[in-house]
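REQUEST ID: PR-0412
SUBMITTED BY: lab tech R.K.
PRIORITY: routine
TASK: structure prediction, single protein chain
INPUT:
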Amino acid sequence: MKNPANKFRQGQNGFSLIELVIIVGMISTLSGFIVPSSLNWIRVEKVNSYTRQLREYFRIVRLDARRWGSSCFININQIAYNSVPNDKDYYGYSVTCTSQSDPNNSSKIGALIPPINNSIFQVVNKAFQVTPNGRISSDKSIVIVIGSKHHRTSPKILNCLVIKSPTGQIVKGKFNSNYWIKSNMAVSQVLDSDVLTPNNCSSS
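STATUS: complete
OUTPUT:
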């Protein structure tokens, strides 16, 4: 009499060594495509997210200045390359607003500044002032370039914000010039250069 257990074992199918090698190779190949693409997507989204937050923040500063009749001074904080601790919030700007009707207005505005981290960098052509009527007191438009720390390798994304003087209109776009980007860009810096012009920022 035949043993039913033997029959069951004979009917089992398994993977040969060659099949396992092929499967592992396929998984490794797919991972080689998926992982870099995912990392690039995350890096791009960090740049886009900070750009959106910064644009909205400056819009709020202008509205608040008009509401309270404040003069707001926007200065750029210099932050060296890769110097932001993981557990700390660092800010690329310091904002001071003076208003006779609301002496505490500056602290309210300062609390809304978007934090910046080591994964991105920003370059600004100059500090500026927002007047009580929401306009920009500057001899030229403000240009802000925002990119990924990994720009020299990937992804090749350079966002830009142009705050037009004197109207204060904020335009978001893509920056056309990248020859000046270094591999160890400071997280936040002021750069008074001819390359930081509104003409190099194509609106999007």
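NOTES: The chain has a mean pLDDT of 86.
REVIEWED BY: pending
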